[in-house]
Amino acid sequence: MPNALHIVVCAGIVPDPLQTLEPVTTAAGPGLKNEMVLPAVLDPWASSALYEAASLTTKNPGSRVWLVSLGPKAKLQAVMMTIAQKVAFELVPIDGPIGGFPEAHSTAAVLAETIAALPGLDRSHLLLFGGWESATRGAGVTLQLVGEILGIADQFQGVDQIDLREDGSFEVLERVEGGKHQVSVCAGTPAVLGWATGGLAEPRNNPQIGMANMRTIMPALQKAKVAKLEANGLSYVSVSLPKQQRTTRVVKDLSPDEIARELVEWIGAE
Amino acid sequence: MESILVLTHADETGSALNNASLEAVTAGLELASRLNAQLAIGIVAADATALSKCLPSEGARLLAVSGEAFAQARYATDAAACEALCRAVQPTIVLAPASSRFTRVAASVAHRLGGFIDTHISSIGGTDRVEATRWFYRQRVEAAISRDARPWFLLLDAGTYAAFAGATGTAQVEQVPVELPALRTMVSGFRAPTQGAQTIRPDAKMLFVAGAGWTKKQPDGQVHATEAGELIVGFLAATGASLGSSKSLVDQGGEGNSVLPFLTHLNQIGQTGSTPRHAKGLSTCCHGEEPHVVGWRFIGDRRAISLDPNCGWTRGKADVVYVADAFEVIAKVNALLGAAKA
User: Fold this and answer.
1) Contact: B313, A160; criterion CB under 8 Å
2) pLDDT tens-digit map of B55-75
């Protein structure tokens, strides 16, 4: 099995995108109003990474997928009820703070330490997956830092596609400026891939996968280690909602001809 | 006393600095002036000599990492190059453009230097100390941050500063040697999406967003995806607009529904897509839900065409909403633009 992969997917949990967010000040620093009761989902770009990982394992027998996720244990459990129905994985939960305001370097250090200690992980066969950015902090640095701490010398960000070859090398498409992909060929694992949307649709729920996953997820959650994150000198001067309210002119009584003329004039105006 | 290093790199041609790098130079000059700090500018390129002519001739120390290995963007070589420049200057603050090239390596370089990084910086201010503004939760919450720890790396979002256009000259460029690791990744080139030519293009003046309504049943009870595609492509050809789309429309392709064949995930804007910066934006057949609004955060003048007068756009998110059929309006817009060009 020359292409048996050990794929570790780093994925956080984020508020459901349809929720209204309101920043508040808490004892631990900035946070979101009612953050612990906001419905949460697995981070969208990290979800792409998880689905791509699962797809790779089906094509490469002997492969394994670990899902490493840092967040409050109760929120992780709620999100896993849904995600566990999609694809097979081994959950590695870390009980820690939620949200986008904790410091990225601290988060990366905890994740790297956890991954380095994973029993059965062969780092020479490691593909470290995650979203290229999260939907919380959105810094796009955590996965890169984890890879650097683990000493992985090949990293790719904004990945939409990976094609594994027989000899263990793989071709990667990364998003770059101008709506194009940069095409690279890497000699083989280990490597870091920060995924954009990828090319797979969200898998349908599969109760059998869900039941198999839940047998290991619940014990893993009970044993989740607790992580405290350092601020590393980061301080928040202000946290606020953007001023986004506009005075909208609603045009109901113009014909398509009149609207078209107005739009053409607007398009041409500097 | 702060010491500032601005990291820059060549564009795709290799014969000029990319625009985002020149914006970072402006930010560096402003910050150095305000803090009375020393300024250095580092260049990563195959041949940095010609590129240095785009940079200030006075007031900044110029350094470069040059060689064929740096002609292409690659993690191992770019990280080594940026690390070498940082070690040569020993800055307390490092500014760099949030280009795909530097975004791929900047955090790792910060880690190697024992420093810390913050990205997507939209402005740098502060009086007694340096404060940077950035967005959280996909442009839904804005925060000003500061750090005591140094070196502090700040990745600047494109379009937040004007590109450097001051006096240039032929200042001496110091070449910085780099010891490269064994290279396991080869860059073979670029590939445009096979399904179409138009995607999000930062240089366009206008963003055109196609929503899921284009592929819904029309008043005659039929779906007109082919006609929708022709109208959209015609509009893009006439205006040179950048094409964005909602997630729901892009996702339809994976669900076997009628789709616009030229749309890919690269077109997606919003919560799971890009957040482009354009002077104007025209949304068609979209709902103004929050995830989509996120994609419009940095659009200046916003207009929308929607059949639903109660859609989210009517609630203070667009400047003008036309309650009309986008098929009819865009067809007439295309005809007027075509006639004007003829």
Assistant:
1) no
2) 987 889 999 999 999 999 999
**Of B57, B119, B73, the residue nearest B94 (C-alpha):** B119
Q: Give me the mean pLDDT over the A168-179 stretch.
A: 91
> Per the CB < 8 Å rule, is B200 touching A179?
yes
Alpha helices, H only, chain B:
19-35, 48-51, 75-89, 100-103, 106-112, 225-239, 247-252, 290-294, 326-341
Supply the ipTM of this predicted assembly: 0.92
Q: What is the rounded CA–CA span in Å between residue B276 and residue B278?
A: 6
The CATH number that applies at residue A213 is 3.40.50.620
Report the residue of chain A nearest B200, measured CA to CA: A179
Residues above pLDDT 70, as percent of chain A: 99
Are B268 and B124 contained in the same domain? no
What backbone phi and psi angles, to 5 degrees, belong to B32? Answer: -65, -40
Summarised one tens digit per residue, pLDDT across range B195-213 is 445 556 666 889 998 888 8
Does B57 lie in the same domain as B141? yes
Please state, for a pLDDT cut of 70, what percent of chain B lies above it: 91
The number of domains in chain A is 1
- In this complex, do B111 and A149 lie within 8 Å of one another by their Cβ atoms? yes
Say which CATH number the domain at B147 has: 3.40.50.620
Q: Which of B74, B107, B181 sits opposite A141 (nearest CB)?
A: B107
Asked if the model's pLDDT at residue B189 lies above 70, the reply is yes
Q: Which of residues 178-197 of B touch A (CB under 8 A)?
A: 181, 184-193
Contact B333/A250, CB-based, under 8 Å?
A: no
Task: For residue A18, give the nearest of B147, B290, B321 by CB distance.
Answer: B290
Give pTM, 2 decimals: 0.86
Can you give the residue range of the structural domain that contains B71? Answer: 3-175
Residues of A in Cβ contact (< 8 Å) with B335: 260
Is B30 strand, coil or helix? helix
Q: Which domain holds residue A13?
A: 6-226
**CB pair distance less than 8 Å for B181 and A153:** yes
pLDDT 10s digits, A107-164: 999 999 999 999 999 999 999 999 999 999 999 999 999 999 999 999 999 999 999 9
Q: Do B223 and B144 sit in the same domain of this protein?
A: no
Average pLDDT of the residues in A191-211: 93
Q: Judge: B319–A136 Cβ closer than 8 Å, yes or no.
A: no
How many distinct structural domains can be found in chain B?
2
Structure tokens at B88: 């040569």
Compute the nearest-CA separation of A135 from chain B (Å).
5
Domain membership of residue A77 (yes or no) is yes
In this structure, the answer to whether residues B101 and B46 fall within a common structural domain is yes
Q: For A228-264, write each residue's pLDDT tens digit.
A: 999 999 999 999 987 767 788 888 899 999 999 999 9
Chain A nearest-CA distance from B15, in A, is: 17
Q: Tell which residue, B190, B195, B251, B103, has the closest CA to residue A173.
A: B190
Candidate from A93-97, A113-117, A167-171, A264-268 with smallest mean pLDDT: A264-268
Asked if residue B188 is part of any domain, the answer here is no
Strand partners, A191: A127
Q: What angle do CA B331, B336, B340 make, to 5 degrees?
A: 145
In a domain, A33, yes or no: yes
The per-residue DSSP string of B47-97 comes to -HHHHGGGSBSSSSEEEEEESGGGSS--HHHHHHHHHHHHHHH--SEEEEE
Q: Do residue B131 and residue B271 come from a single domain? A: no
